[in-house]
Amino acid sequence: MSKTVHARLRNDLRESSRHLLMCVLSLGLLAAMNSAFALPSYAQQTGMACSQCHTIGFGPALSSYGRQFKLYGYTWGNESSVPLAAMIVGSYDHTDKNLPDPPAEHYSTNSNGVFDEASVFLAGRLFGNVGSFAQITYSGIDRKASWDNVDIRYSHPLQMANHSIVAGVSVNNNPTIQDLWNSTPGWGFPYVSSELAPTPAASPLIADGLGQKVLGTTFYAMLDDTFYVELGGYRGLSDNWLDNVGVDSAESPHLRGFTPYWRAVIQRQQGANYFSGGIFGLSAKLLPEGSDRQTDSYTDVGIDGVYQYDDGQTNAITANLSYIRERRSLRGSLAQGLSDSTSNHLNTVRLELAYAYQRTWNGTIGLFDTTGSRNSAFYAPTPVDGSATGSPASRGYTLALEFVPFGKIDSPYRPFLNARFGLEYTGYDRFNGGSSNYDGFGRSAGNNNTLFAYSWLAF
Predict the structure, then answer these.
(1) Is the CB of residue 132 less than 8 Å from the CB of residue 124?
(2) For the whole model, what pTM was predicted?
(3) If you write DSSP's letter for every residue of 86-147 in order, what string do you get?
(4) For 38-85, what is each residue's pLDDT tens digit?
(5) At a CB cut-off of 8 Å and minimum separation 6, what does 418 contact?
């Protein structure tokens, strides 16, 4: 087949995918205008409580059943339902020391009450073996609507000799958002956090650089409920596309070419005990600001593990561990004066330990540590967000206590209402390379310690 035909096929596929997603999201918005359709759609579809799929009565932390539900493309269940739901999140945050300037328009330098977001979901079986998790979000901080996480899946069970296989395909817009495990960035702890409080400057591309700005397709298979593999990739979206879906085109990573993505996991269930270990990663080329040819290369490779004890009713213990190493070749940025070297790396370690009691009370301890190459151009001295030393090193912890009154089999209003109320405290002993005067303007890491309270409603 000629290169011209290949190019036409690729263009046709991208255009078809775009039209499909626009239709799906438009349907979600139109249907959401009828309040009778606003409900937790997965619970209604399966006829089960939310706690069947989640270690507490309201996700997103998945149980073994929840991982299977997602593996099969959100299509389990025979109850009559409409695949629509909505949620609202509100919060209050307070940092140890006031910021020098308000973090966003309409807010003060500290102690802010926030209407974080309102979302509409097209979530559940669409037809046959095709299901979706598609989210449109109105940001109360940015005061605009945009597409959020999208994962449209097709799955099909197969039997080959003495082996069972579940094979499927996912079309999604955020690497790892299609993943079944809470140890990868897309659904990692904390599940909700302050959007106004300071956060470290450095994170891997796979964790925080491509979400909602790319579109990709991945193919996956689970063999004998033990071995999981997934391969696929992503392409960047044009500025026009991003503007159409509500994403500021100035935030585009300017992805060049095809970005491959890979995932492999081995899992084991022994009674109430569950274990898994895996690898994941991607390799991307980005065009830095001001460059029209010379690119930067990012290669992220991660390993992760999960241990879960879940008796299905009273006790659930979950431990998630991940390590991501990112290698960067910054030739394009160096040419534009945006980096002081070509070879850089970033290492990120995260560990979370959670205990849930009766699917109602949940306590979590999260530890995080980021280290990497010094780069004074990448991490320059600026108030709050900068680094006086050019180092990305940040280290700290998050403590969370949550209350979920609904979502169990005997809960009132099931499945039409769910809620999650939480209190989080995030502390830093190192921030952007230092403990004291880390930004070059007199701010200490502990000044960014944040108390965060939130209410999260789904209906």
Answers:
(1) yes
(2) 0.89
(3) EEEEEEEEEESS--SS-SSTT--SS-EEEEEEEEEEEEEEEETTEEEEEEEEEETTTTEEEE
(4) 236 788 788 888 888 889 888 889 999 999 999 999 999 887 777 888
(5) 40, 43, 50, 57, 58, 404, 406, 407, 457, 458, 459
